[in-house]
Amino acid sequence: MNSKTKHKPKIGVFKFASCDGCQLSLLDAEDELLEIVSALDIAYFPEATRTMLKGPYDIGFVEGSVTTHQDAQRIQEVRRQCKTLITIGACATAGGIQALRNWKDVDEFVRVVYATPQFISTLKLSTPIAEHVPVDFELRGCPISKHHLIELISATLAGRKPNIPTYSVCIECKRKANVCISVARGIPCLGPVTQAGCGALCPSYDRGCYGCYGPMESSNTASLTKQFRILGQADDQMVRAFRGFNAWSWQFRKASEDCEHK
Amino acid sequence: MTGRGAKTIRVDTLARVEGEGSLYIKLVGDRVADVKLKIYEPPRMFEAFLRGRHFSEAPDITARICGICPVAYQMSAVHAIERALGVRIDPAIRLLRRLFYCGEWIESHTLHVYMLHAPDFLGYPDAIAMAADHRAVVERALRLKKIGNRIVQLLGGREIHPISATVGGFYRTPTKQQLSELVSDLEWALEASIETVRWTASLEFPNFEQDYEFVALRHPDEYPLNEGRLVSNRGLDIDAAEYEDHFVELHVKHSNALHSVVRGRSSYLVGPLARFNLNFEKLPEVAHTVALEVGLRPPVKNLFRSIVVRAVELVFACAEALRIIHEYAPPAEPRAEAPHRTGVGQAITEAPRGILYHRYALDEKGLIVTAKIVPPTSQNLKQIEEDLREYAARLVAWPTEEATWKCEQAVRSYDPCISCATHSLKVVVER
Q1: Do B126 and A34 touch (CB under 8 A)?
Q2: Whole-prediction pTM value?
């Protein structure tokens, strides 16, 4: 995918503990893919190409969380090689679903899953990239929105700030003229504390938001917890609601621990 | 290369596979001394943290094992849990689930055929480089892939980690009108898939046939997706509930991973070749016809030809999607009620890469007590290594660089999904 043209930014895509879905979002941009890659020099993207060029890279996209000693070292090297470092998805920005180990005895987890636990080398915590190295931009979502990704790439190429919302899913419901499922039907919904980006997908499909895009800025989880209680949610249900794909984000972490230690 | 010295084929980062693995083959003289498909992708331990979660969360959580085949995880999860709880689903839901799966097959198979596998046959590092010389082919691929994604998006809300599938059915089901809007795209996709069969059949294939035990679902009336008995060409014929009696995972000395084997026998093959060989007569006529036209009939024993078989399955998925849309009448309710009670349920469905097994034990509050998940790639792993052992022996006289690329191509024939495999493929990381 590399091109000899000098001015094209050199791109690397790096995977840590993840499902591959966020990097797949780029290949899922079927209408824009050929145009996007013609503007970039894809130097390292193993999921898509055999060509693997050494750094430094102008932009590095990092998917996944850090869960092993080797990866804790590798992210340092990736940071050194990338002028701009962008994390894509909930694993890279909040530790992902695998961060559920962070509240448990990881050795016991290993014994449950693996026949020869003594050979498994894993860290006690699954942590976001920003806990290890400075990150220039964090793109939220489990998975990310391909439209956000395209906007982010375009903005980075143009040297401008990406236009990506930081308000809550509630705003998206209002825009779509959805009747509030929580108010009208008593369905618990994380929409009021979750960052927009999905287009209020779950409420549009008659279910409560489960927080794929993580906490919005200044999310009032304490107030939402009160509302959940009114809707008849027990503490253990609320703990599970906050402990999803962005469980280790500090806002959701605190909210779940408050419910647990009430 | 005289065949006397030692030579190593080594690929530190396998490209165009989902997830992270490396390949190591040691040749001494004209003998293959060692083959290791190493998986260094970090384990994520889904089975451990699923414990204590509510059954309704299982389809959402297990989808996150794999961004390429989340529908497969959702389908195996809902079927296994419905079995544990004794939930019966509406026939219209059954149809919609098949359609949902067709969407994922179209998206995933197109990705693999054109973007991950075909570049090997034509000598390109990737589909983008291939597009420079074969623009129309890559554009066809992107349009086809998008149509698969559109089906998943309509039924599931989005392509990756869909949100609508749940135990008992869907949170919201589509109207007849919404499905009908897919018809013209799917009619184009059916033609494009037939072209894909002809195009892939025109590629050159290494002459490499092996005697496999093929394992796939078989259903009395249809090409398998969501249900059927698990059968093989060596006499296996079991229900999903018996899976763990017949398959075991062994720690093999030369490997860093546990290998799944048929109890009392050995390695086996799951995925398109297995499905095709065991269900050829269940393919719709249009898929049948084009398969025969290009000379493809069971048993196909050359794994490199799996690219053509995937293309035939694309034809099936498009034809089946059209049939379902034609037949569909919305269910009375989007989903059946699921009671809270103790129970154990197992299910196997056909992920694009082969059979995907889930088992859940639930308590009286609906919480998961234990979970077990066996994805297709961990079942193919032993067979991949065995094939490489055979195949590399034929490449001893080749220059290392070409032999390496050929071995990579062989691995990619399986469409391995290492992200899937490592969640539970008992990865052993050497300290």
Answers
A1: no
A2: 0.95
pLDDT mean for each 10 residues of chain B (431 residues):
65 77 84 82 85 97 95 98 97 98 98 95 94 96 97 97 98 98 98 98 95 97 97 97 91 60 92 98 98 97 97 98 98 96 98 97 97 91 90 88 89 82 41 24
Nearest chain A alpha carbon to B112: A48
User: What b/e sequence results for B341-363 when a residue is b if at least 16 CB atoms lie within 10 Å of its CB, and e otherwise?
Assistant: eebebbbbbbbbbbbbbbbbbbe
Residues in chain B closer than 8 A to A20 (CB atoms): 18-19, 66-68, 419
For residue B226, being part of any structural domain is answered with: yes
What do you get for the CA distance between the two ends of chain A, in Å? Answer: 54
Alpha carbon of B187 to those of A145, A194, B154, B210: distances in Å? 28, 39, 17, 36
Alpha-carbon torsion, ordered B336, B339, B345, B350, to 10 deg: 20
Asked whether residue B111 is domain-assigned, the answer is: yes
From the list B46, B54, B164, which residue is nearest A205 (CB)? B164
Beta strands A10-15 and A41-44: pairing type? Answer: parallel
Count of CB atoms within 10 A of residue B389's CB? 15
Using alpha carbons, list the distances in angstroms from residue A158 to A9, A137, A161: 11, 15, 9
Query: Would you call B149 and A30 a contact, using CB atoms and an 8 Å cutoff?
Result: yes
Chain B CB contacts of A233 under 8 Å are none
Contact A48 B126 (CB under 8 A): yes
Backbone angles phi, psi at B343, to 5 degrees: 175, 165
**Mutation site, B17, B45, B167, interface A, largest A CB count within 10 A:** B45
Residue B251's pLDDT is what? 61
Pick from A77, A73, A37: nearest CA to A57: A77
Start-to-end CA span in chain B (Å): 35
Q: How many domains does chain B have?
A: 1
Please judge whether B157 and A120 are an interchain contact, meaning their C-beta atoms are less than 8 angstroms apart.
Answer: no
CB B270, CB B171: distance < 8 Å = no
Cross-chain residue pair B429–A121, CB shorter than 8 Å: yes
Could you say which of B16, B54, B405 has the minimum Cβ distance to residue A47? B16
Spatial distance between the Cα atoms of B66 and B172, rounded to a whole number of angstroms? 23
Tell me the residue range of the domain where B137 lies.
Answer: 6-430
Are A196 and A171 spatial neighbours (Cβ–Cβ below 8 Å)? yes
pLDDT tens figures, A136-172: 999 999 999 999 999 999 999 898 999 999 999 999 9
Closest CA to A217 of A195, A199, A249, A235: A195
The complex scores an ipTM of 0.95
Q: Rg (Cα) of chain B, in Å, rounded?
A: 21
| B408 contacts on A by Cβ (under 8 Å) | 50
User: What are the C-alpha distances in Å from B289 to residues B53, B104, B109, B284?
Assistant: 47, 23, 20, 9
Q: Which of A50, A240, A244 sits opposite B125 (nearest CB)?
A: A50
Chain B residues touching residue A22 (CB < 8 angstroms): 67
Residue-level pLDDT at B98: 98
Interchain CB distance below 8 Å, B426 and A20? no
Question: CB B197: neighbour CB atoms within 10 A?
Answer: 26
Within-domain flag for B126: yes
Q: Closest residue of A to B256, CA-based?
A: A119
The reply to whether B1 falls in a domain is: no
Closest to B62 (Cα-Cα) out of B360, B406, B384, B430: B360
Cα B75 to Cα B234: distance, rounded to the nearest angstrom: 27
- CATH at B341: 1.10.645.10
Q: How far is A23 from chain B, CA to nearest CA, in Å?
A: 9
